[in-house]
Design a protein that fits this description.
This protein has about 300 residues and is of the alpha/beta class. Helix content is about 35%, strand content about 20%. It has a single domain, classed as Rossmann fold (3-Layer(aba) Sandwich). Helix 1 packs parallel to helix 2. The chain is globular and about 45 Å long.
């Protein structure tokens, strides 16, 4: 179980163990003042990119530790991916992470990236959904580049410490307990309201958002964060889809090379990102898909 800033080294080491994909190179860079790492699949087009926001409950995680995992996303999307080292709490509380994510998005646009998809896991998935809304609103107002879509793994969409239906998943999820995530939220928010849509995207206006794909494990405490977000997005007319994977835990795609479900979820996400990053627009009905369970 992870607890506060003391768990940073252990958390990074866990992601450092993800095996690297073939034909992807990595290099450090700084975009709009935010350091990070590029994942560069062979033959990727510089005008298309994935902006990937790493997990770690807004307190842990680093671009370098996540580079091999994100490399698998980039390889399947056949696109460049940039992982920013957005500022973490409690040293840099809300809205530092949001400000960094927005700055990097604008920085990629300024570098000539014409089509940008957003992706992320856990807290990074929640931050990505916040950015998706903010960048879409800004694009509608200014005519700048609109994000083309979002792929999320086990996103943390609700930092409010209520209505999480914890008891249904407490026995199955060895990673999170109720007070643990509440502690992380407190460290990140620094006293700010947890219901602010820029902290908890579940409470934001979702109308007009580009397509969203979410993959989540059946046996994780954050299952209902994904279920409620996608249900609200579908109700708002968004092309949103939720895949619930039977028997899987939090951010299970990080087990690439060990779990068939991880490979399949990455394949599906990579295909979606590749489709969204190309000129050809993808249209389809919003839908739920489950892998052997009822999410109602």
């Amino acid at each position: 179980m992870f607890r506060g800033t003391a768990a940073r080294a252990v958390f990074d080491e866990m992601f450092n163990r993800v095996p690297p994909p073939s034909h992807v190179t990595y290099d450090a860079d700084t975009v709009a003042g935010v350091p990070g790492w590029w994942c560069r699949p062979t033959g990727a087009n510089s005008e298309q990119a994935v902006l990937y926001l790493h997990g770690g409950a807004y307190v842990m995680g680093s671009a370098k530790a996540f580079r091999h995992f994100v490399g698998h996303v980039a390889a399947r999307a056949k696109a460049l991916a940039y992982i920013p080292d957005y500022r973490l709490g409690p040293e840099h509380p809300f809205p530092a992470a949001v400000e960094d994510a927005q700055a990097v998005y604008r920085g990629l646009v300024a570098r000539g990236v014409r089509r940008i998809a957003i992706a992320g896991d856990s807290a990074g998935g929640g931050l990505g959904l916040v950015l998706l809304s903010a960048a879409t609103t800004e694009a509608n107002r200014t005519g700048s580049n609109r994000p083309v879509g979002m792929a999320a793994f086990s996103p943390w969409t609700d930092l409010v410490p209520t209505d999480r239906r914890w008891d249904e998943r407490a026995a199955a999820d060895p990673i999170f307990v109720r007070d643990q995530l509440d502690d992380f939220a407190r460290l990140y928010l620094g006293g700010h309201a947890s219901s602010d849509p820029s902290a908890s995207p579940l409470y934001g206006n979702m109308e007009g958002l580009p397509p969203i794909r979410v993959h989540v494990g059946e046996d994780e405490a954050l299952l209902h964060d994904s279920c409620r977000y996608v249900a609200k997005a579908v109700a708002a007319g968004v092309d949103a889809r939720l895949d619930v994977w039977q028997g899987m835990l939090h951010v299970f795609p990080a087990n690439v090379g060990r779990l068939a479900a991880a490979e399949a979820a990455l394949d599906a996400s990579g295909l979606f990102l590749a489709e969204r990053l190309r000129v050809r627009e993808v249209h389809g009905n919003s839908a739920y898909s489950t892998r052997g369970m009822d999410v109602s």
